[in-house]
Design brief:
The chain is α/β, with parallel strands linked by helices and 520 residues long. It has 16 helices and 25 strands. Bound molecules: glyceraldehyde-3-phosphate. Glyceraldehyde-3-phosphate binds next to loops.
């Protein structure tokens, strides 16, 4: 599984050119440490360019020029042609599958199985997106006549999109906005996340070969140095950002005309599980374990607080910790490994702080004590957790699991109502009456209620969004196409002259918008 490191990437993509950068570079350290003699150090994987604001600004100008106020070849291109560019790109990227999977493992310590799933799921997502777009285009390949007006109604692009994905799904969540933005005719500026950045190196050439110049531009560097100034220009039409609400706020505020900026945001979440007294305990434990700890709890959809009814809480914790002790900790490429290092030592320091706060306030570590070694943090179960503890208030995004015992359902319900987040909830129980009493108010607090199952994003054909501080906009294979476009129509009064004009335009294939071509 070794890579040929250091991978010192000195290139970035602007206006269809792979440019060289000889300025400062940003070191990329792996969460994985290597032993050399007596010393154990994070593996230095390589570096990426730390672009200046001017260099990143050139990339923005390339995207602006390629869009050309909607007159560029890409936004005016026929949908079928854009689809074939994305198909070409998918073929080229698929050739890099092994390299990208290895980089995901080394850069963010995702297990081999999950890194493979991330790559394959992303390619499926692209294929499904193209199918959904064909359907959308087929439905729009006709004229409508209402009240004496003939119109053709389609979806048009919005402009220049800034795409920034998160470190936990550096490929999937970035492409889940980038690809729909592109196929709808927008031009893009892509900034990879801080961790999970080297994997974009092998893809630069694919972007260059598959898309016309300026349609995709890939920039690297410090967010404050390059992204702030880009937002301040006011030339970004859509911000597609998955990350913290703090950064989302900063970026939105930097835009001089916030009302012109459309934002598609995936931000924090603190999804709760509520385990009722009559829940199937084995099932609840199994789902809560994977729900809270797959990829070390570093999923926005992870279960981050478990409310368990007092009558079964002790048994739940006993079973949970016993199954947790069977989980294999180790390196991402190890067979059946489930728990791997966190991205850096600071993240482990934060986990320790949360545990220290909770134990000082009366919780005990119900799992096998506190085990931490550099970037590795063994999952810790805190029980009984109180709502006054930081772990019940902050999004831990890591392997610390608070179990809060409750007597009355008012406790979890009020906690969810008052939470700043509103993504999903998991309810565990078997009584139809009690479950329905919970489901109906919950659907107005969060955007997905999972019954006897952990929280999750997929299937990608289902809508994924959140209320309050968790999200803006909805993503799914088909929803994303809507998010990155706007309904637009060409209309005329129904008379002989106008009909003849439309007929000629369509017959002679003079317009890509006014067209009845059907994509097979
Ligand atoms: O981090 C948020 C991801 O979109 C969650 O996706 O539930 O499929 O792991 P997942």
């Amino acid at each position: 599984m070794r890579l040929e490191w250091p991978l010192n990437q000195t290139t970035y993509l602007v206006n269809g050119e792979i440019r060289s950068w000889s300025g400062p570079a940003q070191k990329i350290l792996s969460p994985i440490h290597l032993r050399t003699g007596d010393s154990v150090e994070p593996c230095l994987l390589g570096s990426v360019p730390s672009l200046s604001a001017e260099a990143a600004g050139d990339a923005l100008q390339a995207a602006v020029a390629a869009y050309d106020s909607g007159r560029g070849p890409w936004p005016t291109m026929a949908v079928a042609e854009r689809i074939s560019c994305v198909e070409h790109f998918t073929r080229l990227v698929t050739e890099k599958r092994h390299e990208v999977i290895r980089l995901i493992m080394w850069e963010i310590a995702k297990t081999l199985a999950d890194a493979t799933k991330e790559f394959d799921r992303t390619m499926d997502y692209i294929r499904d997106t193209l199918e959904a777009l064909k359907e959308l285009d087929r439905a729009a390949s006709r004229f409508e006549i209402k009240e004496g007006i003939i119109a053709q109604i389609r979806r048009s692009p919005l402009g220049v999109v800034l795409c920034m994905g998160p470190y936990n799904y550096p490929l999937n969540e970035t492409f889940a906005t980038l690809i729909p933005a592109l196929v709808m005719g927008n031009t893009c500026l892509l900034k990879p996340p801080r961790f999970g950045v080297l994997l974009y190196g092998p893809m630069l050439e694919a972007f260059q070969k598959a898309f016309p110049p300026g349609v995709v531009n890939v920039i690297y560097g410090d967010g404050q140095t390059i992204v702030g100034p880009i937002m301040q220009t006011g030339q970004i039409d859509v911000l597609a950002f998955i990350g913290s609400s703090r950064v989302a706020d900063v970026l939105k505020k930097a835009h001089p005309h916030p009302h012109r900026l459309r934002a598609i945001l995936g931000m924090g979440a603190k999804n709760a599980a509520i385990v009722l007294p009559d829940a199937n305990l084995n099932l609840a434990v199994k789902e809560c374990l994977t729900g809270s700890l797959s990829y070390n709890g570093q999923r926005c959809t992870a279960l981050k607080i478990l409310f368990v009814h007092k009558s079964i809480a002790d048994r739940f914790v006993e079973k949970f910790t016993s199954e947790l002790s069977q989980m294999i900790c180790g390196m991402p490429w190890q067979d059946k490994v489930q728990i791997t290092p966190l991205p850096n030592e600071e993240h482990c320091d934060y986990m320790e702080e949360l545990v220290a706060d909770a134990t000082a306030k009366g919780a005990r570590i119900a799992s096998a004590g506190l085990v931490r070694n550099r970037s590795f943090f063994q999952p810790a179960v805190l029980y009984p957790a109180l709502l006054t503890m930081r772990i019940c208030q902050e999004e831990q995004f890591g392997p610390v699991v608070p179990v809060v015992p409750f007597d009355s359902l008012d406790l979890p319900i009020n906690w969810i109502r008052e939470s700043n987040f509103g993504q999903q909830v998991s309810l565990f129980g078997t009584d139809a009456n009690v479950m329905s009493v919970l489901i109906d108010p919950m659907v107005n607090q969060v955007c997905r209620v999972n019954i006897n199952s952990q929280c999750q994003r997929g299937p990608d054909l289902f809508p994924f969004t959140g209320r309050k501080g968790s999200a803006e906009g909805t993503l799914s294979v088909s929803d994303a196409l809507y998010q990155f476009s706007i309904r637009t129509l060409v209309a005329t009064k129904e008379n002989a002259e106008n009909k003849a004009l439309l007929k000629q335009i369509v017959h002679d294939h003079k317009s890509n918008f006014l067209s009845t071509d059907y994509i097979f």
